[in-house]
Amino acid sequence: MESMIDNEARHVVASAYQTTEGILTTHRDKLEKLAEALLEKETLDYDQVVQLIGPPPYDLGRRQVESVEFEQSLKNLSTDTDATKA
Q1: Mean of pLDDT values over 17-41
Q2: CB within 8 A of 46, min separation 6: which ones?
C-alpha cells in the first residue's frame, strides 16, 4: 500500500513538473522580461506586471490580499500539512 501511495505521489509530482516546464518554455519571453525587470527594481506591482507581459489569461478579479488573510492561509496550510502527517 505504501509503495502504491509513493508511486502515485511521484506521478503527481512528475506530471506537475512537466506541466510547469511546458508553461515556462511556452512563455519564456515573458519570464525573461519579468526576470530583467525584477533584477532592476526588485519588486513589481500588478500594474507593472500587466504592463510588461499583459493581463492574466483568466479573470479572477484583481484584488489585494490583506496581510491577515495571508497569515490565516499560511496557518491553514500548516494545519493541513500537520493533519496529513498524522
Answers
A1: 95
A2: 62
Number of other residues whose CB lies within 10 A of the CB of residue 58:
5
Cβ atoms within 10 A of the Cβ of 19, count?
A: 10
Q: Which residues contact 41 (CB under 8 A, 6 or more apart)?
A: 48
Distance CA 40, CA 36 (A): 6
The C-alpha atoms of residue 71 and residue 77 are separated, in whole angstroms, by 10
- 8 Å CB contact between 49 and 34: yes
Nearest-angstrom CA–CA distance, 52 and 39: 14
pLDDT in tens, 13-24: 999 999 999 999
Supply 59's cell numbers.
Answer: 479573470
Domain ranges of the chain: 2-85
61 dihedral zone (left: phi>0; alpha: psi -120 to 50; beta): left
